[in-house]
Every structure is written in C-alpha cells, then in structure tokens.
Design brief:
Blueprint: E1 9-19, H1 32-51, E2 62-66, E3 74-82, H2 87-95, H3 102-114, E4 117-122, E5 127-132, E6 137-141, H4 142-148, H5 152-162, E7 171-179, E8 192-196, H6 197-201, E9 209-224, E10 233-236, E11 241-246, H7 249-256, E12 266-278, E13 281-295
Parallel strand pairs: 11-13
Antiparallel strand pairs: 1-3, 1-7, 2-3, 4-5, 5-6, 7-8, 9-10, 9-12, 10-11, 12-13
Helix pairs in contact: 1-5
Length: 304
C-alpha cells in the first residue's frame, strides 16, 4: 500500500456537500451508504485514468487516501498519492499546459455527460482541442481524452457514485476543489467547480436491456378466455399458467363463430416466448402464433 512520504506527489481533492436540514440549518451529516459510494466512485475513476496514463504515473501507480473528516461541515477530502513519476513525462505535460488533476478529470467527465463533444482537433503539443455542444472548447491531454471516450456505462456509474449524496433532497450541491502537487503544474481546466442535481441526473444509468425470443410447441389448456381482447387469454401447461396474446386469426375467427371451448380441452399450440432482461430483472411474455389442434380431454369423451 502506498503511504504518504516526502518523496510522494500529493494532489488534494476536496468535495464539500452543501444543503440544509428541514429546520433550515446547514447539513452536517450524510448517509453512510452515500459516503461509501463517493469513495468507491473516486477510486474507480482515478484507477481508470491512471491506467490510461492520464496522470503520468510510474510503475508504482497511485492510490487515493482519505483525510480525517472536518468538524462543522460535511467535507470529504482525499489525497491522490503518486510515486515514481517519470520526469520526462512531467516535463512533457508542463510543455503541453500542465498535468490534469483528479478534480479536472471529474470536470471533463461530468462535462461530457452534460454536453456531448461536437468536434476534436489533435494539437501539436499532444493535447486534443475539444469543442462541446454548449459552444465551449477545452484542451485535454490525449491519454485523458482516449479514456473519456471509453467505458461510458462504467464512467456514468462512477460519477453517479461520486455525486450519490445529491440523491438526498437535503443536499443541493457539491463543491469540488482540486489542488495539484506543488511539484507539477496543473492544467487549465477548472480547479474549482460546483455540481448540482442536474449534473447528477445527467449520469442516470442507461437501461441494460437484452431481448431474446424462442418458439416452441406445447400442449396446454385455455384457463381463461376473453372474447373481446385476444391479449387477455391465459394458457395453462403442466408447468405454468401464463397470460398470453393469441395471434392465430383463423382460430379467433372460429371462436367468434361459436367454437365451444371447455377449460379441460387440450390444445396443441405453437408459442413464442419473448424474454426481456432489463437492469437485472426478467420479464417473459407468451404469444400463441398458431393453434395446431384441439381435442377434448379424455374425461370428457363420454360427453361427446
């Protein structure tokens, strides 16, 4: 584990959560689960961009440490401690306008969620001049720009974790302030900025949807029949009793003309099962494509 020492480069990132209690006093506590999410998001974001080379970290990499909480306000203060920075890399960043801080990474990432980039120009100094749809431009180091364009779902999750306290109606904003190590020059991106609920809403998780279909034949009984609505029939097999939509127009026509159906009647059906998995939840729907055959149950044979 990395420890603080005189040889380490230490970047300080401060997150100050602002808001009021119901009685109008300033908030002085946050939900423990939200604080845990903030730290998890910060570690994940820092690790991704460190691996991408955005901070110029050496072989030992960097680690995010938490400072003791301050009294009288709710402030989360962390250190990003880096070791073995290559002097050549630091010099290259300095020539290109400075090395990005974790705070600047958060700014660029939330910016990309609010305003999609409309253009990118690769500059001779190694940076990328990014034009945003809100008519602003920024220079971003290439390594950081490449990482910003990857893992969109993961990035939104990290930002949502960092801003998790904004889901609490008591919390109105989070002030972010980044102080670069004294040994290096920071980039020109915002060193201090404020994120509010619209920023939190902009990183809503995208629906993770998987859709599949399977067609099969099965024997079943019609446990419920709706003569007015073919989407409200119920199909009962030996294993399941499901709401189903009947799309066999020929069969529906016979029913409309007076086909007698008993609950005990057995149908040979061609069924399509549509499965939708959304955010970990599964929903299955049945559609009767064809009624292949229809017969009375054995116990009903004596009734004709």
């Amino acid at each position: 584990m990395l420890t603080e020492s005189d040889s380490d480069l230490q970047e300080v990132l401060t997150l100050r959560f602002q808001g009021k209690e119901e009685d109008g006093t300033e908030i002085h506590e946050l939900r423990a689960a939200h604080v845990a999410e903030v730290l998890t998001g910060l570690v994940g974001l820092s690790s991704d961009f460190a691996r991408a080379g955005a901070f110029g970290d050496g072989p030992a990499g960097s680690e995010v440490l938490v400072r003791p909480a301050q009294e009288g306000s709710f402030i989360i203060e962390v250190l990003r401690v880096a070791q073995d920075l290559d002097p050549t890399t630091v010099a290259a960043y300095a020539a290109a306008g400075g090395m990005p801080t974790l705070g600047q990474i958060i700014w660029w990432a939330t910016k990309s969620a609010r305003a999609e980039p409309s253009g990118a120009e690769y500059l001779e100094n190694g940076n990328v001049l990014v034009s945003w749809q809100d008519n602003t431009v920024q220079e971003i180091p290439q390594a950081a720009w490449r990482e910003l364009n990857k893992r969109d779902r993961r990035r939104k999750k990290q930002l949502r974790q960092i801003m998790a306290p904004l889901s609490d109606q008591r919390v109105s904003s989070v002030e972010v302030e980044a102080v670069a190590p004294a040994e290096i020059e920071a980039g020109e991106a915002e060193a201090a900025f404020t994120l509010t609920r619209p920023d939190y809403n902009a990183v809503q998780p995208e629906d993770d949807i998987t859709e599949t279909s399977e067609i099969f034949d099965t024997e079943a009984q019609m446990s419920a029949i709706d003569f007015d609505d073919p989407t409200r029939w119920r199909v009962k097999t030996t294993d399941e009793n499901r709401l189903a939509t009947v799309e066999d127009d020929d069969f529906l026509g016979r029913v409309a003309r007076g086909l007698a159906i008993r609950k005990s009647d057995i149908f040979n059906l061609k069924v399509r099962e549509d499965t939708v998995e959304k955010n970990g939840r599964t929903r299955r729907t049945w559609t009767v494509l064809e009624v292949i055959s229809h017969r009375r149950a054995a116990s009903d044979d004596d009734d004709g």
